[in-house]
Amino acid sequence: MTIIIDQHIKLELTAERHAVDLFHAVDDDRAHLSEFLPWVEAMQSVDDFKAYIQNCESMHHQKMEVSFVIMLDEQVVGRIGLHYLNMGNRNAAIGYWLSKDAEGKGIMTRCCTAVINYGFGELGLQRIEIKAATTNAKSQAIPRRLGFQQEGVLRQAELVGEKFLDLVLFAMLKDEWLAATT
To answer: Looking at the domain assignment, is residue 145 inside a domain?
Structure first.
């Protein structure tokens, strides 16, 4: 599955063919990404990404997540997905990361918009959450820009390296999204 954002940006369903490019994107930006993402240190080889992608594909088949590689002019620059899919309660959480060189161009906001539309439209979700570290202003700016409601702070909710990070919890309901985008 592919979601076209514009003439330069598209989302491709995460697949094993992306392993090499994902590894290089992370490896080239390791210091930047590891500040807020706990899994970066574990991704030390292409084989690590292959194993991770196999897990992503398994979770997709089980309807537990759907994740995409972000392509900018045919280059992998990040990932985005709906994680922790709970179809019983019709909710999920968006997770994302972007290479430092691709930041500041509105790419992630447009990708989030597409994933939100997919979640509410195709999957029939009722609620989508985004969590961002309290110290990650760039990541928080995205749900704020998209009109998500800040619901609170999850104290020491994620271990990154040797430090527990507080996370700001944002949420959007389907009716709110439809009212804001129609």
So the answer is: no
Does residue 143 belong to any structural domain of this protein? no
Backbone torsion region of residue 70, taken as left when φ is above 0, otherwise alpha when ψ lies between -120 and 50, otherwise beta = beta
Could you read off the pLDDT of 137-179 as tens digits, one per residue?
Answer: 999 999 999 999 999 999 999 999 899 999 999 999 999 999 9
The answer as to whether 108 is a domain residue is yes
Tell me the per-residue pLDDT of 49-99, one tens digit each, with 9 for 90 and over: 899 999 989 999 999 999 999 999 999 999 999 999 999 999 999 999 999
pTM: 0.93
Range of the domain at 118: 2-128
Q: Which residue has the tokens 């993402």?
A: 37
CATH code of 68's domain = 3.40.630.30
Strand order in the sheet with 9-13: 2-4, 9-13, 66-72, 75-86, 91-98, 127-133, 163-173, 149-160
* Domain-located, residue 172: no
The total of structural domains in the chain comes to 1
